[in-house]
Fold this sequence. Notes:
By secondary structure, the chain is α+β, with helices and mostly antiparallel strands. 31% of the residues lie in helices and 25% in strands.
Amino acid sequence: xxxxxxxxxxxxxxxxxxxxxxxxxxxxxxxxxxxxxxxxxxxxxxxxxxxxxxxxxxxxxxxxxxxxxxxxxxxxxxxxxxxxxxxxxxxxxxxxxxxxxxxxxxxxxxxxxxxxxxxxxxxxxxxxxxxxxxxxxxxxxxxxxxxxxxxxxxxxxxxxxxxxxxxxxxxxxxxxxxxxxxxxxxxxxxxxxxxxxxxxxxxxxxxxxxxxxxxxxxxxxxxxxxxxxxxxxxxxxxxxxxxxxxxxxxxxxxxxxxxxxxxxxxxxxxxxxxxxxxxxxxxxxxxxxxxxxxxxxxxxxxxxxxxxxxxxxxxxxxxxxxxxxxxxxxxxxxxxxxxxxxxxxxxxxxxxxxxxxxxxxxxxxxxxxxxxxxxxxxxxxxxxxxxxxxxxxxxxxxxxxxxxxxxxxxxxxxxxxxxxxxxxxxxxxxxxxxxxxxxxxxxxxxxxxxxxxxxxxxxxxxxxxxxxxxxxxxxxxxxxx
Length: 481
């Protein structure tokens, strides 16, 4: 059991478990946390999982965990690891079951006073327009051939089909399409799970949320992002639905079978992996990309539905809903990073971690070159969310990565013991948060007290400097499964 005595304190917000802690560690383990958050992380197996990650063949520099860390499958959620390209391993446990679960922020031309008379109407129409909940299908029914098109083309594909504006893809990580996606290596069973799920939100911690900009921390960057005080913005948080889950299931099973062929042993079977250069590694990478493309297309379709509701209620007076940014937080990418003073290509695993590239990075669109990438951090329901901007420090310290949310501190089962869903809904409404959900009972699973304090989590990221605060958002309407 790891204790604070096993950690080396680097700064007030940075800690390290040295390679000497365990004989099979290939690199140190790095933790971004305050003293308070660190004490919460010790309550589960997050740090044991992080140490296990340091044993992966080809891992470079350090295994990292963010302040929203909590126990996951194989990797801790909030975990980041980079392995050497192409001989290092790729591990589905380093991405998770909800491939490209991510978040999109839409910005409007209206402020809180403009929408105040229409809040209940807006909540009701969004609730009807966006299918949500376990197994809920969407408005579009696809053939396998049409689904393959979405898996190849991602958000760009559905935009071409008329479900978005031409400029939308400029505001999405990777343009909303990974070019290595290969639908042919996604199982038919995975595809059949997804034939009617495009444009659906799902359940759990996924949501569509109407927020207002509650505080501005950096006026210049906020202006460049198009954010201003009291402005209405919309968060969309969902992923690849059943298809992503099945891709992970299929390839975790396969990799557990082939590790012996490559002479790989791991301390936890949940870290099943294969070299990226192997047929199994390449196939998983390309199937994961197909699932990631579906997730970007999914958020694009939800955006299309949100825009229709917006226009229906506000007409021309509502102006446009433009995308500030859409970013994944369960994904693997091939990226270049400086390690020991040299530029290296590495296989970056982000699981519950948000890409946070710095100003002047070649992968960012021209309008983010001065500011750095928008980093969108949704909070727990009823508290707050944040917009940050990526920094050079983040590129150096965390492979250009940030936290992805508040991070659970209590299981769903434990949360439901603490409060009834109906009572939580009443409490939130008294606090000015209007909630619409398909399962009042399950709402309790997402109670704010089940999560770490989002303000403390984001403060760690800001203090370390891996991303800097730009604006804070406060929820007004929450749509959940």
